[in-house]
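Q: Could you predict the 3D structure of triose-phosphate isomerase?
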Amino acid sequence: MSDRKPLIAGNWKMNLDHQQAIALVQKIAWTLKDVDHDYEKVEVAVFPPFTDLRTVQTLLDADKLQLRLGAQDVSKHESGAYTGEVAGAFLKKLNVEYVLIGHSERRQHHNEDDELVRDKVAACFKNKLVPVICVGETLEELEAEGAAAVPVRQLTKALEGHKDIGDFVVAYEPVWAIGTGKVATSEQAAEVAKKLRQTIGELVSAETAEQTRILYGGSVKSANVAGFLASPEVDGVLVGGASLVVDEFTGICRFQKHVSL
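A: Sure. Here are the predicted structure tokens for triose-phosphate isomerase:
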């Protein structure tokens, strides 16, 4: 592991209403408290649906829970006649810290392209939110171009043309490994993360490359997380379905017990 603080991010996707969200957050927090989880060593964030954000924020504040709050999307617009959109300023008022940008499901089901991803990253920077920039290739792209080509291209576009680049996180999620049970090897994940970090160094600065956390996502479970995070190139994981299962998610958060640091 490097000096970068590992980040375990749970993407709930379109699951759980606001009442169910309370129960899950409480169970996660209680379970981690019972095992004396050190949030200074491993950061933990949850990404509920928009309708749950205010409820989760209130719970985190009232009970002084150390979980971080993230949103699953943001509008590129600041305000106006954009029905159904949610502005970055609104998220900031809810103490949201992180926002998923360019998740493969947004790209696939909502036709989000690289230009829109770049604009949403800009909205995050403007509102002092930390974008978690999601990149990854399909099976067809993997076979045609290799594992790193598409993620590097997507990240390059996402960071293009910003006047002020704030903090950001990169999540490498091979599309072929999301919800399929297929998993990239730890060596594959580390190699892609290394190339993404090199890209950040070329596009921004060596200092930013060294500070930026790069996550792996794609069928991550408590049984395989240690292998990914044994590499100094991988600084955490973006968890999908397993983030809805308390024992699985908290087991992932406790990955250090399986890793020799």
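Q: Anything worth pointing out?
A: The chain has one domain: 7-258.
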